[in-house]
């Protein structure tokens, strides 16, 4: 399946999304803030990025 990057500064939302997507068969990477998210995005290839706009 696809590779998804989830970026959120709220740990409970981050873990809930990552867990649900992983159970659906997606390869999920997480980032706890925008800086980490940009770094992971630049270093990898993702089919989808889910991010909190108001971090």
Describe this protein with a few key phrases:
single chain, 55 residues, alpha/beta, three-stranded parallel β-sheet
Question: How would you concisely characterize the structure shown here?
Answer:
By secondary structure, the chain is α/β, with parallel strands linked by helices. It has helices at residues 11-23, 34-43; strands at 3-7, 27-31, 48-51.
Structure description:
The chain has helices spanning 11-23, 34-43; strands at 3-7, 27-31, 48-51. The chain has 55 residues and is α/β, with parallel strands linked by helices. The protein has a domain at 1-8 and 21-45. β1, α1 (11-23) and β2 (27-31) form a beta-alpha-beta unit. The chain is flat. It starts with a strand and ends with a strand.
What is the helix/strand order?
A: EHEHE
Oligomeric state of the chains?
Answer: single chain
Q: How large is the count of helical segments?
A: 2
Radius of gyration: 10 Å
Helix-strand makeup class: alpha/beta
Measure the end-to-end span.
28 Å
For the biggest β-sheet, the strand order reads 2-1-3
Uncertain parts: none
Mean pLDDT reading: 96
Helix % is 40-55%
Largest sheet: 3 strands, parallel
**Principal-axis shape:** flat
Query: How many extended strands?
Result: 3
Percent strand equals 25-35%
């Amino acid at each position: 399946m696809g590779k998804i990057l989830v970026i959120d500064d709220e740990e409970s939302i981050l873990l809930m999304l990552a867990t649900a997507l992983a159970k659906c068969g997606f390869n999920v990477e997480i980032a706890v803030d925008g800086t980490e998210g940009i770094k992971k995005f630049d270093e990898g290839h993702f089919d989808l990025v889910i991010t909190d706009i108001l971090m």
